Amino acid sequence: MEEMDDRIKVSRSVTYDIPDSAVVFRIAWHFVTAQPGFVLSEHSEAESTIFKGKALFTGKLDDHEVTVRVWVEEAQKAAEITSYGDDESVLTSHVEGLANSLRDALVSYRQLDEVQKTRLQRALIARTCWDRIVHLVLTRAPAEAIYIQVAHGREMFIRAIEGGDMHPLPLSTTPWLQKLESMPRDQPLPGDFATALAKKSVEWKQETSKLLQKFIPA
Fold first, then answer.
1. Helical packing angle, 114-138 and 191-212, nearest 10°
2. Of 70, 126, 141, 166, which has the fewest beta carbons less than 10 angstroms from its beta carbon?
3. To 5 degrees, how large is the angle CA 88–CA 94–CA 100?
4. How far apart are CA 76 and CA 58, in angstroms?
């Protein structure tokens, strides 16, 4: 965070009363990377007794470089969304939009029944997997780490649509998983394959976002 100390910072806090702080964290994450061009750059979660989640994202707004931090701490029952950049008006509009989207989504979440909440939670996990794949590709992570995210995202998506119509997304992951299995587990992916997989994961993210819209507003 040191490199952001000299940038303009705009923050908004959203309090919540639902019991699952991880859901709040992943909904906020979803709204950040639903914006074209925003990618995950850092991520950490701690789920011992008290949930703590932090994620950093980078992107551009009106040709301005922007970094967004999402921080959720169960002890505070609040989600803090912070945008860093060089134009205060752009940052203010941006972070207020994200905060309002999160508030609206939490209202919708409270109205879901338990089955719907479970499906949403699974879809949110799948949604973060696709973003994590792009991050892992960009940081030249080993094939095994990327395989885990593709497999986990596929599993969570299947469980999210359980009882619903079949969807082509899980089938589309199969050839990618097979190819990943054939690669050295401790080596980064070959360039062309890595680029193609990152592009494919964006498609999976978009399809998962459509599923999420059945439960929470866009």
1. 160
2. 166
3. 130
4. 25
Strands of 51-61's sheet, edge to edge? 8-15, 78-85, 64-73, 51-61, 39-47
Partnered with residue 10 across adjacent β-strands are 83
> What dotted CATH number matches 114-212?
1.20.120.1130
CATH architecture, domain defined by 2-110? 2-Layer Sandwich (3.30)
Q: What is the pTM of this model?
A: 0.94
| 139 token code pair | 């940081």
What is the identity of the amino acid at 99?
A
Summarised one tens digit per residue, pLDDT across range 167-190 is: 889 999 999 999 999 999 999 999
User: Domain boundaries in the chain?
Assistant: 2-110, 114-212
- Return the structure tokens found at 7: 């940038």
Q: Which helix (H) or strand (E) holds 42?
A: strand 39-47
Q: Count the helix, strand and coil residues of the chain and give each as a percent rounded to the nearest 5.
A: 55, 20, 25
Q: What is the pLDDT of residues 57-100, one digit of tens each?
A: 999 998 899 999 999 999 999 999 999 999 999 999 999 999 99
Q: Where are the alpha helices (DSSP H) in 45-142?
A: 88-110, 114-138
